[in-house]
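Q: Protein A?
A:
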Amino acid sequence: MKVELELPPDVGAVLMERARAAGLSLDQFAARTLSALAGGEHSAREASPEERLRALDDFLAGLESDSTLPEEAFHRENWYPDRW
């Protein structure tokens, strides 16, 4: 099915940026997004548990965490200082 849309320039710019970030053409990005909205093949509801876990692992791998908690953070008396 072919669909033609007239979008405001600011909306079009946002969609183009998102499509570029996903490495897709605007047509591909729109088709994927509309398919997901309709519950199509790219819908998160249809992803297998393994695909969901892989997506979560990919997301978490992209996060940077160089902070560590001091040893005192693991002592119960420091969790609730007003109770001791």
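Q: Protein B?
A:
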Amino acid sequence: MTRDYTMTLDNVFQWSQEAGVASGSEPVNITALQRFAALVAAAEREACAVVCERLPETFKIAADEFGYKAEAPTAENYAAAIRARIDE
């Protein structure tokens, strides 16, 4: 079963508990927690967009360097690049 990463209130609260931000027994400012999650999600979306923007050029550089014809990146290439992304 795959994990649900949908940005629902229940998931945000569950993730905050997993991260140790909320204990479940103490009051939590849900509005602030939702806003924080939205900011983190927006930053991650932008970082993933940058990966996607750079991938075609990365393919071309690799093709030029190794002397083969550059093919357009596939959806699988984009997904792999996003999953492999680390903060720069």
